[in-house]
Amino acid sequence: MSLPVMPLSRFIALSLPSASASRQAKGNRRGLAGWLALSVAILTAPFVFSHPSVAAESPQVKTGHSIASLITASDTVDAHSRLHIALRLQLQNGWHTYWQNPGDAGDPPAITIKADGALQGSTQTIQWPVPQRIPDSSLMSYAYTGDVILPLELPLQSADQKSDKVNITAHANWLVCEHVCVPEEADLALTLSKGTPAPSAQAPLFEQTLQHMAVSSPYTATFSSNGILQLTGKDLSPTSVSDAWFMPEQQGKIAEAAAQKPIIRNGSVTLHLKPTADFSALPSLSGIVVLKDKADTERALQVKANPGTVTDTSENTRTASAGFMRQILFAFIGGLILNLMPCVFPILAMKALAVTRLGHAARQEQILSAACYAGGVIGSFTLLGATMMAARLTGSAAGWGFQFQSPLFVGMICWLLFSMALNLLGVFSFSAVSINSAPHTHHSVWNDILTGVLAVVVASPCTAPFMGVAIAGALSGPPIAGLTVFAALGFGLALPYLLIAIFPSCARMLPRPGAWMIYLRQFLAFPLLASCVWLLWVATLEGGASIVALLGSGMVLLGVAAWVYGLAQTHQNTLSDRKRFALHGLALLALLGALSLLPVLRQQAAAPSSTQGMTLPEGVEAFSTTRLQTLHDSGKGVFVDMTAAWCITCLVNERVALDVPEVREAFKTQNVTLLRGDWTTHDAAITAFLRQHGRDGVPFYLFIPANGAPITLPQVLTPGLVIKTISSTR
């Protein structure tokens, strides 16, 4: 500031006429110099403090819970090097934002950066630092807290030769969470000069972030289809590594919150991940493995594991073998209990009559009948499991009972059960159970096989205790192991029938056939008709009210076909060939008329339904992951009920153990909210939630207390069990 003042003062001094005048003007000169200095400072201040060469950080944008800005590692830039640029988020204490894989909940930040002027370019690719793991109840998040630097590299090329300025603009959006989650966004801009790059004042922030980036792994990484990830290398040992964990780049491939059980040996580190259903189809597994030594120093390695054979230790082999045997045991017990589940009640009509007739038949016929029935059951369960596995490989989110999510399938089963009911009532004779009252009619092998097939078809909406864990394990493991688990499930369902055939003493204890069988057979038709009413209701929820007219019309036509065919059977000895042929033709026409409705039913099933799903009783809320997180963050306990209209076990549990006054009062007293998820039609959010908790079907019940670990309840509930569970953490 003194440089322009001094020449001016000298000029004024030389122009004055005398020394006395000089002394007299001395004070005036000092005042004039001060005013000149102040004027120059005011005029030059805007140029000094806004010069683009020091603008390596954009103006800060304050959002609700963050301060966002754009920073660069250099004050100047040229076209011969990439510009290191970053989104800087200064978060409030207690708040966090997310990694590229947010974990079980959340959303990663996104930014679009563009440059124009002397140089141009664009980028959206964030170079992600290593995140923190933030567990919350049964969920796991991968996130950042505090002062967050998310770096990018901006490639540039020459553009406007007349300009020496580079204008950079960016739009960023991110999610910040504490007890609640808030989406935020900002538009950012800065200007740099074209020139040889030189470090900016923000360069140290880039250097610090570089220290938190994962480095390429020097170790060989392999993973198996059942979720074992292994690193092998000479310097890996219990001395150099005390703990390890894996964070996958892709969301939803493993249960993020599950313990990974690291096993550290000389030359290897093995992590036991809990895979989701489509894990085995991954071509590779990428992510970050963090190795911690005994001094608590962490080393983050970027790995890309290839599928292969994991060199497992004997301990791992025993663990895997024990887990597989437990799945088989659970499947067998589940299949055994499935005989008592409500969804199998319609089949008891056929089984009761067949078993009674079998009790006093020839032993060879007993064994053959039981073997054929067991073959039908086991084969159908195995085929159903293979179908689900194939659907998973093609990217479909198929779960247990998935076929009942189709109104077309529900309608066809409704027609089948209606036809069986007409058969049991004696309208016609053409099924696994004949209307002929004679106990020793010729036995049909195909009748027993088809009975077993039908038992599996009708049983598939149900999940007995232990089945959920077994099915989830079967779908996430190797195909051969999975099919073995499904076969064990079928063996459990078929076992009671097999025992009667194998042990003659059991068969002789059954009552002798007689006239009572006719009345029992007719009486057992009514559970089948009740099942038809239930299936009509399910189809209405899935396909809309108009689907009832189609299914009802089909049932009328099937009834006509059965009645006419029954007339031909009853009077076959008195009717002429022409009349018998005419009756058979009329029955066939009625049957074809019913079948002609299938394309219309299929079209109706494919159309979006306007129904609102299952009606929720008072005090019950619809499930969503957002609502679950909000309730849990507010300090409330949450009881999650995953159900479906076609799941009879679910409906029984709701009527008996959940939607009853004493349990509702307990929910209110314990400050617990009941969230009900309707899986009647396919719901991707519910499917993802089930897989996160190791399940592939409904019912599924999970209690998440306000404080403490989640509690998974069995598939069969009682009011006392529910009340005890929600009261145990108070």
Give me the secondary-structure topology:
Blueprint (H helix, E strand, L loop, with lengths): L1 H14 L3 H31 L11 E2 L3 E7 L3 E2 L5 E9 L4 E8 L6 E8 L1 E5 L8 E5 L2 E7 L1 E8 L2 E2 L6 E13 L3 E14 L8 H8 L4 E2 L3 E4 L4 E5 L10 E6 L14 E3 L2 E5 L12 E8 L5 E10 L6 H25 L6 H15 L3 H31 L13 H18 L20 H15 L7 H10 L2 H24 L1 H5 L7 H8 L1 H19 L2 H25 L6 H19 L1 H10 L13 E3 L2 H9 L3 E7 L4 H11 L2 H9 L2 E7 L5 H9 L7 E5 L6 E3 L5 H9 L3
Parallel strand pairs: 3-13, 14-21, 15-21, 22-24, 23-24
Antiparallel strand pairs: 1-2, 2-4, 4-10, 5-9, 6-7, 6-12, 7-11, 8-9, 12-13, 15-16, 16-19, 17-20, 18-19, 20-21, 23-25, 25-26
Helix pairs in contact: 1-2, 4-9, 4-10, 5-8, 5-13, 6-8, 6-10, 7-13, 7-14, 7-16, 9-10, 13-14, 14-15, 14-16, 19-21
Describe the structure.
There is one protein chain. A hairpin with a 3-residue loop joins strand 1 and strand 2. Helices cover 44% and strands 22% of the residues. The two termini are 73 Å apart. The N terminus is likely disordered. Helix 6 crosses helix 8, helix 7 crosses helix 16 and helix 19 runs parallel beside helix 21. The strands form 5 sheets. Strands 14, 15, 16, 17, 18, 19, 20 and 21 form an 8-stranded mixed beta sheet that branches. The chain has 4 domains: 152 residues, Immunoglobulin-like; 95 residues, Immunoglobulin-like, CATH 2.60.40; 275 residues, no CATH class; 109 residues, Glutaredoxin, CATH 3.40.30. The relative contact order is 0.08. With 730 residues, the protein is an alpha+beta fold. The radius of gyration is 37 Å and the shape is elongated.
